[in-house]
């Protein structure tokens, strides 16, 4: 409940009755101060008037006043600057290290806010604030979505920079690893991410002119050449499949040459997915993308629009996969497994444009960052449960920028029940 007390203080959602210290002195809050995310007092730079005297300094909040001693603040010099102790329950008086009494204010949480907050935490419907979404102004909604989009891009920036550092500060490797994760299209994103971390790209480069060897190294490092990665009813057939056997032979040679070990097969998910999204097909497409060697960080920066980028990403596979979804499966009708428009759009949204934003930031090029954001604003919104749920409660989702913001909102606020940091949550508590 302390976080709700912090919230009430931060937003000055005070009761209508006059505020007074526990010894009856009137309190006027001019400025609640700035929240301190680090160790030390909860709020800094607060301005309050106590019994006619104006004070500027730090404020500490606790559910119970005795928590002051439980947390040993009476022994910490950082708390000598406290001008007001705000509590939910006054069960003790508190003092600074020198024994000086600190003014204490009991701040009751209004029943309406307490009940509204409890309703948000226990609402089964998504989003939990659905009752008020349709009543919010367009400006309020879209200013929050803009902030959320930048939070998401900053989060992606950190992930991409980690890949950049891991791959010895090679932007092309970081780009390919970022694309690889997105080739998992959600279900196998973690598996493709682990796989990309295991790939020694300089070793692959030595065999980049041979598609079979690129495929062998890619499938082998993924653990997808192991028989236990195949449905049990294909395992005997795989032993007679010429293409599969060639890949196994090449991978044994390359694994010995470069001292490679594959990732765990258990990372991959195969159930309940469309055949075109099979990890085998996606891996074959990644192998073709790497073999073609026509997309790089410098190339990406020079491409002006979606169509030019998609033309480089629109890859197929080697001929075997035109009639298969896994090794040794019963051949299907001959159909090239080329990335479709929906898949290309998702790759743009989740990999290419975050990478472009990151690269522009690293290079200090504002124009590149702006181009990434502008393209997100021009792409259509994604169509998934999250977006449909917000549409159903009256929020119009206009673009991929909006849908990315809402995905970030769900995963980093709604799922964590972090309504107190959400601007819509604030409006909900204020309205109710």
Description:
The chain is α/β, with parallel strands linked by helices. It folds into two domains: 2-109, no CATH class; 146-378, no CATH class. The protein has 19 helices and seven strands. Strand 3 and strand 4 form a beta hairpin. Helix 5 packs across helix 15, helix 5 packs across helix 18 and helix 6 runs antiparallel to helix 7. The chain starts with a helix and ends with a helix.
H/E topology pattern: HEEEEEHEEHHHHHHHHHHHHHHHHH
Q: Look at the helices and sheets and give the structural class.
A: alpha/beta
Q: On the 0-100 scale, what is the average pLDDT? A: 94
Describe the global form: elongated
Number of strands: 7
As a percent range, the share of helical residues equals 40-55%
Number of helices: 19
């Amino acid at each position: 409940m302390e976080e709700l007390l912090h919230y009430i203080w931060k937003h000055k959602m005070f009761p209508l009755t006059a505020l007074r210290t526990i010894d009856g002195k009137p309190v006027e809050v001019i400025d609640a101060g700035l929240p301190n995310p680090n160790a030390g007092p909860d709020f800094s730079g607060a301005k309050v008037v106590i019994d006619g005297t104006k004070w500027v300094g730090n404020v500490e909040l606790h559910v119970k006043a005795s928590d002051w001693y439980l947390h040993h603040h009476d022994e910490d010099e950082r708390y000598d600057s406290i001008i007001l102790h705000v509590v939910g329950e006054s069960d003790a008086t508190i003092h600074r290290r020198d024994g000086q009494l600190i003014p204490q204010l009991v701040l009751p949480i209004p029943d309406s806010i307490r009940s509204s907050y409890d309703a948000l935490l226990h609402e089964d419907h998504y989003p939990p604030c659905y009752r008020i979404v349709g009543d919010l102004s367009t400006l309020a909604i879209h200013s929050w979505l803009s902030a959320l989009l930048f939070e998401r891009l900053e989060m992606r920036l950190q992930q991409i920079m980690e890949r950049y550092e891991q791959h010895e500060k090679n932007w092309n490797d970081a780009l390919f690893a970022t694309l690889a994760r997105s080739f998992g299209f959600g279900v196998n994103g973690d598996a493709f991410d682990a796989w990309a971390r295991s790939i020694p790209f300089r070793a692959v480069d030595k065999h980049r002119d041979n598609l079979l060897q690129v495929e062998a190294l890619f499938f082998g490092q993924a653990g997808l050449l192991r028989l236990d990665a195949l449905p049990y009813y294909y395992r005997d057939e795989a032993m007679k499949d010429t293409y599969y056997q060639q890949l196994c032979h090449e991978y044994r040679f390359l694994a010995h040459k470069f001292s490679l070990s594959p990732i765990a097969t258990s990372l991959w998910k195969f159930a309940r997915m469309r055949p075109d999204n099979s990890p085998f097909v996606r891996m074959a497409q990644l192998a073709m993308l790497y073999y073609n060697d026509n997309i790089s960080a410098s190339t990406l920066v020079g491409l002006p629009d979606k169509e030019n980028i998609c033309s480089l990403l629109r890859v197929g596979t080697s001929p075997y996969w035109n009639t298969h979804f896994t090794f040794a499966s019963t051949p299907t009708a001959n159909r090239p497994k080329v990335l479709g428009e929906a898949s290309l759009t998702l790759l743009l949204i989740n990999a290419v444009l975050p990478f472009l934003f990151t690269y522009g930031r690293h290079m200090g090029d504002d124009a590149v960052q702006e181009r990434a954001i502008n393209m997100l604003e021009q792409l259509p919104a994604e169509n998934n449960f999250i977006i449909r749920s917000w549409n159903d409660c009256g929020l119009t989702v206009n673009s991929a920028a909006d849908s990315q913001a809402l995905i970030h909102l769900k995963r980093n606020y709604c799922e964590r029940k972090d309504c107190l940091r959400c601007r819509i949550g604030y409006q909900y508590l204020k309205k109710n």
